[in-house]
Amino acid sequence: MAPKRREFIQLSSKGLLLAPFIPPLMHQMSGPTAKSSTSNASQPVTIMADEPNLIGPYGPWAAAHQDQALPSFSFRSNTWNDLADWKKKAHAQLVSRLGIPALGEIPAVNVDQIYDYDGLHIEALSWQLPYGRPTKALLLKPANAQGRLPGILAFHDHGGNKYFGVRKITRIPGRRHPDMGAHQQEYYEGRAWANELAKRGYVVLVSDAFTFASRRVWMQDVPEHLRNGLTDDEPENSIDIAAYNQWAGEHEHIMAKSLFSAGMTWPGVFFAEDRVALDILAARPDVDPDRLGCGGLSGGGLRTDFMAGLDDRIKCSVTVGFMSTWRDFILNKSYTHTWMTYVPLLPTELDFPEILGLRVPQPTLVQSCEKDPLYTLPEMKRADEQLKAIFTKAGVADHYRTSFYPGGHQFGAAMQDEAFDWWDQWLK
Q1: According to CATH, what is the number of the domain 109-427?
Q2: Crossing angle, helix 238-261 and helix 266-282, to 10 degrees?
Q3: What is the domain partition of the chain in residue ranges?
Q4: Out of 80, 107, 295, 371, which residue is the most buried by the measure of CB atoms under 10 Å away?
């Protein structure tokens, strides 16, 4: 069986205690780490890193390229003092970088099955986008609920497991796949958090993300030389699922390069498909379209950052386990993240936290874990300071909160309780 994502990260990171290092001036550096290419002092100086980093001597140079000044569309800059003007222009710039595909009108939604389970009314839904197989989703709400309820887009994680999607954070009647029992125990303290949130009086929609579960790449759809002997007709046993997940992980660089070649980005496709899900949720007669939120862990946190940053219909957001800086990715942690994270050219215009910061003044909660191997703690805290600065400058410091928890990459019970209370505070 392929190693779990966390184990892979831990094995890959041994021996790399990484610290951010940005030289204030690239042509000046003293001490034993400054090495001249020749004895002639007039020759260019080769800057070496004080500490090991992912790209060696190129790390300080690359980081300084991104970080030597505030990004050009940063609201923290004195250049921008009118909030509405900044949001309009920075939003347009981000959209231009994302290459978001146009998906047309809201698709017809099929109700494939209905369950009554554990105090919830659950609908198994599907809809067809202009490409790929139908998207499958679950909608959950309290049984016998009356009137319009607040709605939440609940985003599932990545977790190195692309065979599954919706099932990672939900539970329905019948036998649960043992992999999903283990997954929920590892990342969510055994909870199906979308179910637990729905019980508190929400309509919760969970859909499979692009390249996951119903939206995954099937073997029959790629050339035979790429299949590694895998087929699509294997039963749902853990060995075959692990083999698929390993293949899917290795296929990500192909997908990313193909999207770049088509003028799109992975975050842009995520956003386009998640916006369709939001359209579907907002249009339901049992949902109040003025009380919408979103949230999720890890890859779900990434999707939250873009959805909450770009769509003003999201009145309250919770990002879990996906907040750091581009500098962290440059020097320390790009290898712990998939191609789904990156938007070419954007880092000199908006630092990563500023994507989510575009939603100011709307309520925003970020939850991070101090020993999360996907990020460094100093850069997670630096991201927090950036978001604080944005909300403070906008005069709504109380609309933003970051909470740091002990432990590794997770959305544990205490974190879920805080997130649910945050949604309750602003959407009820």
Answers
A1: 3.40.50.1820
A2: 110
A3: 5-79, 109-427
A4: 295
